[in-house]
């Protein structure tokens, strides 16, 4: 994965003078020329998950948003635990999802 951002901004009096040549236009403030470039590269499926041997894909959810206020825990709720019914599963407590022992910590 890689990425680069480039931003260029410049005031141009030559562009202002060029626009001022148009009829019915009186341009006096300097024009501003700006360009923003963004590049990202991801080789999807290149790296295997060391636990399952399957490929991983990454998404940064650029345009996603959430309205949950992290300062107010009353709006939080428990999430489900990922279930993997093999002996090498990362979360063995997921098998207890319909049991009162689910969520208890070992002491």
> With helices defined by DSSP (H or I, 4 residues minimum), what is the helix count?
1
Helices and strands, in order, run as EHE
**Cα separation of the termini:** 41 Å
Major sheet attributes:
2 strands, antiparallel
Secondary structure layout:
Layout: E1 2-12, H1 13-20, E2 31-41
Antiparallel strand pairs: 1-2
Describe what you observe in this structure:
The protein is mostly beta strands and 107 residues long. The chain has one domain. Helix content is 7%, strand content 21%. It has one helix and two strands; from the N terminus they run E-H-E. Strands 1-2 form a two-stranded antiparallel ribbon. The radius of gyration is 28 Å and the shape is elongated. The two termini are 41 Å apart. 0% of the residues are buried. The mean pLDDT is 77.
């Amino acid at each position: 994965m890689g990425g680069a951002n480039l931003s260029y901004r410049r005031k141009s009096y030559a562009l202002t003078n060029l626009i001022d040549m148009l009829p019915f236009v009186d341009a006096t403030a300097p024009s501003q020329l700006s360009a923003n470039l963004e590049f990202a590269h991801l080789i999807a499926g290149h790296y295997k998950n060391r636990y399952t041997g399957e490929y991983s894909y990454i998404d940064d959810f650029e345009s996603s948003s959430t309205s949950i206020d992290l300062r107010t825990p009353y709006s939080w709720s428990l999430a489900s635990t990922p279930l993997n019914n093999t002996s090498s599963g990362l979360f063995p407590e997921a098998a207890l999802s319909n049991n009162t022992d689910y969520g208890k910590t070992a002491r």
